[in-house]
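I had to read the description of the data format several times before I understood it. For illustration, here is how one protein appears when written out as sequence plus structure tokens:
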Amino acid sequence: MGNDPGNIGIIAGGGQFPLLFLEAARRAGRTVVVIAHKGETAPEVAAAADAVCWVKLGQLGKVISFFKANRVSEAVFLGSITKTQIFRDVLPDLKGLTLWNKIDRKQDDAILRAVAGALEQEGISVRESTLYLRHLLFPAGLLSRRKPTKEQRQDIEFGWRNARAIGALDIGQCVVVRNRTVLAVEAIDGTDATIRRGGLLAKEKAVVVKVRKPGQDFRFDLPATGLATITTLRSVGAAVLAVEAGQSLLFDPEAMIREADAAGIVVVGVTEREDGTLDF
């Protein structure tokens, strides 16, 4: 029993990431305890958990009490929370309200770091979201049959610099460009909405660039793409998806690339060298 890592807790948002992690953690021999968010977490995640507690955003005291009652020693943050819920569906308890009032900047990283700090003060260590899922990291190089043209390569490089800049400001992780012009910047509405906004302005052939924020904490909000991303790109006639390799998640890669090839969309994993040049 001396090597028993204890139970692991998932603070689960939406999407498939919490379920994939839960299954991988169980294969690793862990008992999995889930905090599920009303209106966000899939019922399948709650059904698969060894123990589950449904909460609303802000119920930090309830989260900590439930984890302690279920002997959780480590926790992970997984899945998306619809960011607009921050303004309409929050029901903070006393602990959550106290923490909220201490946070100067109501932005993703600041909020998540504060919650992680509160958990760690209670003896619950917050681990990276890729703990059992390193194989889901976006690969480097060309994934699609179609290669980027010279003009698209220039757009990727231009978009990369702009995506890095908005990431440094903790605004978002994705930009949409065409002809070295920024058409849309990700904000609270998320990646798919950003692609739709930029794609409509581009009319066609938009280039979408998605990167990890500078100093991005692997415990929180890693960029993620998948089949749904390609469906959105296809709906606006976009031409390219360029994603930072090794720093973001890729779901359903085979189905995603099949769909991209069918639509003639370029998909590429980009690596930045120390001198700032890009490989892709």
In short: The longest strand covers residues 72-78.
